[in-house]
Amino acid sequence: MEIQKLHLQETKAPMDLLLLADPSEEQVNSYLKKGQCYIAKISNRIIGVYVLVPINSRRIEIKNIAVAENEQGKGNGKELVKHAVANACLQGYKVVEIGTGNSSIGQLALYQKCGFRITGVRKNFFKKNYEEEIVENGITCIDMVRLEMVL
Ligand code: ACO
Ligand code: ACO
């Protein structure tokens, strides 16, 4: 897998992939403006994406991470999370944050396997900020679970 930074002035972000991680195109566009977008390619095909958004001079957040459906479950997501963390470290950040839904069991497993620890819950985040109801694993997504890794 080859991972490279996308220059958003020149190339459009892969919205189809970004929307797998976040169903609100409006939210995606708003953090793309503030963040850094990286894409992963296999045989010159874009199969993954992640977006890093600085919170302050010490903290940065992985706001969006996604792998194309036919490439999931093969270790690509783990490689992207590890790349994002190493990238944040190289840029001098001390803490990486990530947030996901209470219903996102696989994502919670992945982030903890990569070394993230749960730090809190933003109650009703998805209920307040998303018009459409989100259901995963038979669970309604209501709250955001916050995780972080100290570098
Ligand atoms: N129980 C235990 N472990 C699990 C479970 C589960 N239910 N589900 C997944 N895992 C583990 C896997 O076993 C694997 O760990 P392992 O390598 O130790 O076996 C790991 O989680 C998944 O690893 P990958 O194969 O590397 O992940 P994948 O390539 O499928 O990418 C991703 C994960 C990015 C979440 C992908 O499924 C995806 O794009 N989903 C849709 C978009 C999405 O939900 N993005 C995250 C939203 S939150 C955010 O963007 C900040
Ligand atoms: N992803 C999504 N859903 C899952 C997952 C998963 N990884 N694992 C379980 N579930 C769902 C199942 O799909 C099922 O839901 P469904 O009926 O909608 O499909 C539900 O969780 C499990 O239901 P049951 O079959 O009724 O549960 P079970 O009889 O297995 O009992 C229990 C669960 C009590 C946790 C049992 O596994 C057990 O005794 N485990 C060991 C002891 C333990 O861990 N106890 C809890 C510790 S915490 C405490 O005690 C307060």
From TrEMBL:
Annotated signal sequence range: none
InterPro entries for this protein: Acyl_CoA_acyltransferase, GNAT_dom, NAT_camello-type
Domain N-acetyltransferase: 1-151
Name of the top EC class for this enzyme: transferase
Assigned EC number: 2.3.1.-
Record field: transmembrane: none
Record flagged with keyword Acyltransferase: yes
GO MF terms, alphabetically ordered: acyltransferase activity
One Pfam family recorded for the sequence: Acetyltransf_1
Keywords from the UniProt entry: Acyltransferase, Transferase
Name of the protein: GNAT family N-acetyltransferase
